[in-house]
Records
---
Amino acid sequence: MSITQDARLQPEAATATPLNGLAQADFGNPAAWVVAFILVIMPLIANGFFLIEIFGTTMILGIVALSLMFLAGYGGMVSLMQLTIAGLAGYMTAVLGASGNANISLGWPWWLATPMALVLATLFGTIGGALAVRTEGIYTIMITLAIASAFYYFTNQNWVIFNGHTGINSVVTPHFWGVDWRADVPFYYVILVVAALCFGAVSYLSRAPFGLALQGVRDNPRRMAALGFNVNAHRVAAYAFASFLAALGGVLQVWNYHQISPGSVGVERAIDILIIAIVGGITRPIGPFIGALIFVLLRTFTLDFLVAIGLDGNRFRLLIGLGFLVIVLFSPDGIVGLWERWRRRGEGQVQPGGDRHG
């Protein structure tokens, strides 16, 4: 049976999960269009710092966390190697392209190095996913965590390809049509377009035959197998798609900072992606971007505040951890889930005509 076949699945999948309607509602929400308009005109109202360090970084982290959200929310698979995939894409962009480390980088033009980096990172994530889908639950998490940890130590100790703990600096970014695409405004729009495409792709795929089948696999893999669906094939395909999303975020990340090092792919960074996805909401495509905005704001301004009062700036992670515990305790679906419950409660209390419902 084809991986996208859904002749017998759609009734079950449509009733098994409300995520399809929620994802579809994002595009009909007036508030979403207001936010989109503000993001489009952001260069007119924000300086370079807020444009790139806040909103640009938010969208880049949001793209990587979106890949985790797709796997966990629609496939029921928690992967801790999404940042590793992004890191490999970033490393390959630096190695295949041009950088300040001429003895390592091959000097390919960006239009050749970037697609090759995306292909290699997607292939790496797909192979890792093929290993992970053979297990379930905590074992899947541990396999992806082991891959992330192994990649960190490999990049930290390998000098021939990855330049060891020093990393690769002064990575050359695209410059064509007379435009420096790493300049603040052009690069912001590049990030915005990529983030919008990723968001739209995930929202669309959640309602497509493949997305419905994947959600059926998440809810009842035995029933799906009995219906003739290849459960592992759907899961591996989900990893392939999520890997491509993460790879896009990794390329944007290395263009953003012009460098990449093992510190960018450390295990604690991989945990940050998980926190971002859960805090924002693992059931909606918009959740990872909300979680990323909260994370970036805390990391940027709380760190400076702690240093100003004489405390270790790294303690901002303590605040993030406390916030994570509070959100998970009161709203397992994150900020988005909390907002949905508040909205439904408000709509349910007062109806037209003054009727009240408990």
---
Amino acid sequence: MTTRTLVVLRHAKAVHTSGLADRERPLTEVGERDALKVGAALAGMDLTPDLVLCSPSVRTRQTADLALPDAEILIEPAIYEAYPDELLTLIRRSDPEVGTLVLVGHNPGVQELVTELTAADGDDGFPPGAFAVIEVDGEWSGLDTGRGIAHWNPKKH
């Protein structure tokens, strides 16, 4: 049976500016630094994505670009404001050739997805810039559970 790796990443810290549409909020300086740390942490785990599925918001695109500058990034509008079941549907549609997939999105959807896939209690939270690494047995199309093998939180690193 083929083992695949799913990385679920919440965008890094973004600005809160009145009058700026939510989708247009960029990363703060701290968010930019955290996104670079995400990239270093993933590289340290020897995780190189075959594909990145990314929300169209400015903050998620910046997070993906900074953390994974050499990766193929596919902007997927359905990730913005998605519920966990919608995120799971997107993942299940992934090409079977993709061995390592990164999904860059927003809370509460990404945290709830990780909780549902791994049966984790989520006590560590999922702050901006956090990610979970999940091992998946079999094809993406059949994904319903996985094994949480790592949880990274920028507040702790």
---
Amino acid sequence: MDGWRAAAACQEVDPDLFFPVGTGSSALVQEEEAKRVCRRCPVREPCLRSALAQPHPPSGVWGGLTEAERRALERPARRYRLR
């Protein structure tokens, strides 16, 4: 286990919060609640770096970003590396 995980704010809440199911309004509300936990997290950056370093992007909210948001963040970097 990464050392930063012990200090993560998500340790204080139900892990299911970070894995919304579906795309409806209840999933969006859950996603925003998870992001709110991330915003107060002292290890948000290492969490995000860890998610971005995975060979297969993990699902759910990591480092305050959804899987789609992390993919969008990676696209410009990927294009730059291909040049």
---
Amino acid sequence: MRRKWDPRVKAKIVLEGLTGRCVNELCRSHELRPGQYYKWREHFLKNCHLLFEREKRAPDKAELAIENEKLKRLVGELTLELNNGRSIR
């Protein structure tokens, strides 16, 4: 049966190895094969830059309400133009 490792535990173990602790000793203390440690380390090093990327935030309710009002106004203006026989471009 395979062990499920918590991502925080994986990160902690990888960081211990990166700070200079002997990998064999580290793996022994966590009952982990060195090959697995090196896979985690590789994954960690390939993806650690993602931590510093800005998260795209969702617009808040006030921003959505303002955008909604602008769109309603635009729809109203276009409807008036159509009803008056003008072309839209």
